[in-house]
Amino acid sequence: MSNIDDTTYKAGCEAMIERASELAEQEKYLDSATLFIGYGLASGIQEMPPSFFEWRDKLIADPDVQILFKSLSVQSKEEAEAAVEAYAALSAKADEGRFALQIFRANMQESLEKPNDAVDSFKLALTQQPIIVGAWKDLGDIYYQMYLPSEAWACWDAGRSLNPEHKLFEEINEMESALMADHPEYFMGTTEDQEK
Questions:
Q1: Cα separations in angstroms, 188 against 90, 176, 191, 194
Q2: Fewer Cβ close by (within 10 Å): the C or N end of the chain?
Q3: Has residue 171 been placed in a domain?
Q4: Is residue 131 included in any domain, yes or no?
């Protein structure tokens, strides 16, 4: 699913930070904020980069960014449904950061037990920005819950190919190790492969 090499992945993460600052300079605060957040989703680094703090006050003063941040923390089904709608409305206003809004929307759709909608939103996000490791992981999780293990492993492998050390994959790595220990026959290839 992902054929991005390590150099391209790391360059993409760094480019996201640079572009977020450029967009803030252009007063495109929603796109800027989503790219700063997208950097964390791609890299697994929890802390915002230093350049975010240069723009923080202007970003959090923007009405669309305020809607975004408010929608990230919901307490009820009704708030989750409102957040899905908010992300759709914000996506119409965003350009380069639309992928992050689709990821947030997918997560809310999953919490509302709408896995097919969540899959569609994750796919849209990954079409725009395929280096988002967290989206690959979450999409794989949904497929796994839908009893589609081949699709789940393909997504997890795509994410791990980008950043094998990402903490999100610790549980997957442990599950894979356990499966290899308990059922090595599934990991040995076909008899034809073994004879070659």
A1: 47, 14, 8, 8
A2: C
A3: no
A4: yes
Which domain CATH number covers 74? 1.25.40.10
Range of the domain at 93: 6-164
**Distances in whole angstroms, Cα of residue 154 to Cα of each of 26, 136, 141, 149:** 38, 9, 11, 8
The C-alpha atoms of residue 118 and residue 110 are separated, in whole angstroms, by 6
CA–CA gap between residue 178 and residue 174 (Å, rounded)? 6
DSSP 49: P
The model's pLDDT over 91-114, given as tens digits with 9 standing for 90+, comes to 999 999 999 999 999 999 999 999
Contact 136, 156 (CB under 8 A): yes
